[in-house]
Specification:
The structure is a single chain. The protein is α+β, with helices and mostly antiparallel strands. It has one domain. Helix 3 runs antiparallel to helix 4. The chain is globular. The relative contact order is 0.13.
Length: 261
């Protein structure tokens, strides 16, 4: 492999339980990939604002709705696809390798296929020295990558940043949980505490264990702190299994949700 070729990130973390989610993450080589496939649009992550129309069009094709009326709900859904591409790499680097992953938005590129996130290209020197300090291992991902993406997307439509932070936090909670039976389980618990316990942290309390008033919901009920707004899109009335709106529903409404699942 020449120095210019992208390296598969998955090959570096072969023991990770997140391996199936890492097939489209690469170390370096964005320019090489760009010249090979003219069907993809390669965008530096901190320049995503320029792709607003392309992203909204992709969500309209998938969910319906109108960008002018349902833009915040549509871009909220787009963010889930993007976070699912970017977040597993940071978690796998931290817990399988014990290393921070440099993910500054201005040094990462995303390949878009018809407006949808298709592949992520990280800097060639992304992997830093091993450390057990969660703050060091996730600082770049949270504050130099996630925060930039949240700021960009929430500025494109009238949407509170906390909606996007909740989308990211809900996913991160699930990714960390994947390490529960892994040899890195103890470190995963410490990482989760750093991400979600501090009130000063943007991911604080992303997911909560709640006691529902309805016996039709499990106890404890895993609830996101903030709804992802998907229900605002015409025809999208099915809530996700951790939607906080379920906690406000009566038994009949919850039964209707279960029947539509």
């Amino acid at each position: 492999m020449s120095a210019a070729e992208p390296q598969a990130f998955a090959a570096l973390v072969e023991g990770s339980p997140l391996l199936p989610l890492l097939e489209r993450v690469w170390i370096g080589g964005a320019e090489t990939a760009r010249h090979r496939d003219d069907k993809l649009v390669y965008v530096r992550v901190d320049q995503l604002a320029a792709e607003r129309d392309r992203m909204l069009d992709a969500m309209v094709r998938r969910y319906g709705g109108e960008p002018s009326l349902h833009g915040r709900a549509l871009l909220s859904q787009w963010s889930k696809f993007y976070f699912r591409l970017a977040a597993p790499a940071a978690i796998a680097a931290a817990l399988t390798l014990g290393r921070p992953l440099g993910m500054a938005a201005e040094r990462c590129s995303v390949a878009l296929c018809d407006g949808m996130p298709d592949a992520l290209y990280l800097p060639r020197d992304a992997l830093d020295a091993p450390t057990t300090d969660p703050a060091r291992r996730y600082r770049s991902f949270v504050y130099e990558h996630l925060q930039i993406v949240v700021e960009i997307l929430s500025a494109l439509v009238p949407m509170a940043p906390r909606v996007l932070w909740s989308n990211a936090g809900n996913l991160l909670d699930a990714l960390l949980d994947a390490y529960r039976s892994d040899e890195a389980s103890e470190q995963a618990a410490l990482d989760a505490q750093w991400m979600f316990a501090s009130e000063r942290h943007p991911l604080h309390g992303s997911v909560r264990a709640m006691t529902p008033r309805s016996a039709l919901l499990p106890t404890p009920f895993r609830a996101r702190r903030v709804c992802c707004l998907r229900y605002e899109i015409p025809g999208e009335r099915q809530l996700c299994g951790s939607c906080p709106l379920l906690l406000t529903m009566n038994d009949e409404q919850i039964a209707e949700q279960a029947a539509a699942d």
